[in-house]
Amino acid sequence: MECKNCGCSCISNYCPNCGQSTKERRLENRTFFIGLISGLSRINKGFLFTAWNLLIHPWKVIRDYIQCRRVRYVAPISMLILVCFISTFVGALFSAETQPVVIGMSDANLPVFHHIILSAGYFLMNNALAQNLTVYLPALLAIPIVYGKAGAGRYNMAEYLTAMIYMATSFIIFNVITLPISILSDDLYSALGFGYSILICAMSMYFAFPIDSKKRRVGYFALYLLTALLIYLIILIILGIALGMGNVL
Length: 249
Hints:
By secondary structure, the chain is mostly helical. The protein has helices at about 30-40, 45-55, 60-65, 75-95, 110-125, 130-135, 135-150, 155-175, 180-185, 185-210, 215-249. Residues about 95-105 have low confidence and may be disordered.
């Protein structure tokens, strides 16, 4: 057998060169969720290696992981949770307000829908972990919607979900590193984060899940941007309707 991680010839269950199991196979929906649970139970020395590679070229991490070259990397969900907690801790150090106030939250006459929306907004604005797990979700959901058919013969939902998790982790790592910029300018900090996320999505889709022609790659990415914007727009409309109903009630 040939090790899928380093290419070494093997005759046992583990590669004598790198130590990866020779039974590694492509991701499947069933084994993906089993891997999520087992991955939460271990943290290995690959954290810094995985974090650095996710920052400079996440498409390589994605491509390696879905092609069974996994021994050097921390599993996607483990990496995301670790980075989210680090982001929460670092964000607290840079927070200027320790006791944020939401006006009217305790008003007994506040409409029920309005109260629900304000409560959710208050929680998200003051919980960095919740922000990191939700703010990129619409953009990431657009990936399997757009690219699922283009790669349906080669990739499954588990592999696209792995890409989504690794890309979200890459965004959060970048935001943690550039957080000191927020002291100088919140607008600049937000613009850098937005620009980085668009760039990473584009390059990851271009390199990790290649489509036959460059022209089609560009077309699919344009469709991806439109889909992501549409999902965000739908969310904003739903929130607006909910607030409007709350005001009426």
